[in-house]
Specification:
Largest sheet: 4 strands, mixed
Structural class: mainly beta
CATH superfamily: HesB-like domain
Number of domains: 1
Number of helices: 1
Strand order of the largest sheet: 3-2-5-4
Helix content: 10-25%
Organism: Lentibacillus cibarius
Oligomer: single chain
Strand content: over 45%
Number of strands: 7
Shape: globular
Distance between the termini: 12 Å
InterPro entries: ATAP_core_dom, HesB-like_dom_sf
Radius of gyration: 13 Å
Pfam families: Fe-S_biosyn
Protein name: Core domain-containing protein
Length: 99
Amino acid sequence: MKLHVTDQAAKWYKEEFDAEKNDYFRLFVRYGFGGRIPGFSLGIGRDTPYSEYASTNAEGINFYIEEKDAWYFDEHNLTIQMNEQGLEPEFIYNPNEPK
């Protein structure tokens, strides 16, 4: 599983959350609309890593997913980018490339 956050999306999170360099943001599974799996979606918030499944750094901010949420991605990569209107980030799920 690969996690990618574009610089534009990372800048949005820095501004919205008043984040500083080397802050950690965890992507976590929650009940809700609009996710890859019906009935679930992703949330994001500041947290301290415990058992990282995937991680990346963009604009000095560390984004990660915990092992306990790995099931949600089920052989998919995640890219976080700004939507076409540039108003907020959007999550793009793509199947992993075959090995």
